[in-house]
Amino acid sequence: MKKYLFPLLRIDVSRKRGVSLVETIIALLILSIALIAIAGVPIMTTKLALSSTRHEQATTIGMRELNALEADSRDIIPDRTIATGFNTFTARSSKQNDTGRVTVVWQGGSLVLERPLSEFSSVTRRASRE
Amino acid sequence: MRVRRAFTLVELLIAIVITGFVMSAVITLFFSVFKNYELHQDISSAKQRGHIALALIQPFVLNAGLGLPPDNASDPQAFQRAFVDIPPLEPLFPAQQNQRFSSFVQLAEIQSSGEMTVSAASEASALWLVYSISSGTGVDKGFEPRRGVVLDIPIRGTLDLQHVAAYTPDTPNPLKSWVVFPSATTPLLVQNIGSGGTVRIMRFLSNLDDKVLPLDEMRFVRAVKIFVSGTSLIVNRLDGSSGQTVADGIAGMWCRFDQNERVLTVYILARADTRREPGVQGALDGWPAAADVRWPRDAAYRYAVVSRSWRIRN
Fold first, then answer.
1. What is the DSSP string of B218-266?
2. Residue B107: pLDDT above 90?
3. Which residues of B touch A104 (CB under 8 A)?
4. B11/A21 CB distance under 8 A
5. Out of B14, B29, B211, whose CB is closest to A35?
6. What is the per-residue pLDDT across A11-39, written as a single tens digit (0 to 9) for each?
7. Where would you tag: which of A64, A120, B224, B264 has the fewest CB atoms within 10 A of its CB?
8. In the predicted model, is pLDDT for residue A128 greater than 60?
9. Are A128 and B75 inside 8 Å of each other by CB?
10. Domain boundaries, chain B
């Protein structure tokens, strides 16, 4: 009659060998390599959140410049630099072929916003009451 | 007797030490992952709150100035003259000079006493707007209001008499007696509303000369004061009621209005949902430098800044 450590699993105690130290160390090494990979996750998400915040700020700035462009009667509009605390954005606006275009550039990315815009868009309201 | 092999004490100790190192790394890692999760949850909930606040402001901004006189450089008094002469309009032009609207977009500053005073600067902490809302009624034919001339105009459509009332000197809310037509830029004082079904004769009095085009819609004039008090975004409709809290957890508002471009930018400083340990918020990104000192905040929350720009087309 054989003795079993766990009768259900039928593991033979007399045949079972232990795990050697070397095997343990190798297992731990593999585990730590996996952990190093996981450690990158919070760093990646923070980077991603930062870049999405920058994108959001750039979009807000671009929308604002596109609105301002509508009122601008100049042919050539000088670049505008906007600082929002951590980041600096440069907005380039142009009005050509009935299209208003704003390019927002920041360190690590850029964004282009366009909308149909007549060259007469700056004359949106009668200058004086008739 | 069979020899049984096992770990020696030294082997066990080494294994325990190594496991200890690895487990401390694992726990630190998980701790930082959870902290990171908390950070992003806070940022997204704060931003969401800010966007809700902006969405609540947006309808007023989009209708601001519609049908109202422009405040251009050639005629800076046009807005006040359009309302002021006959009769005096208390909600927009009270006796105190520093409480008067000079345009349909009026920036105001909240004083340390809590009182708001108008600001001539291009940026300030409170936003006052005069806007117009749809009435569902309009005119078939065009007409030409003249200064001081009374006109009887047929208005087609079902008029909701909750929103408009003929002017009397003791009316509780004189704003309810003003209407505009978007094709013109002159508000008209309603002096009488005829009885009737889908066509009513309305008696208008104008302060300025103008021209209303055929098939134009009649709109009701309304005004609001939007500001942040404590941690609430408050909208005060100038109809005799007091200010109402429309959003909570808003720590600050900052408005910028460019007179030439006519672009209004509103910054909202919104709070996250969950209280953390004090000092959890570091430097703020995107909050205008001029507005920095103005908000007493609960330092145990995280905050986010959201902003939006609208061009005011009247």
1. EEEEEEEEEEEETTEEEEEESSSSPPEEEEESEEEEEEEEETTTTEEEE
2. yes
3. none
4. yes
5. B29
6. 665 666 667 778 878 888 898 888 888 88
7. A120
8. no
9. yes
10. 49-311
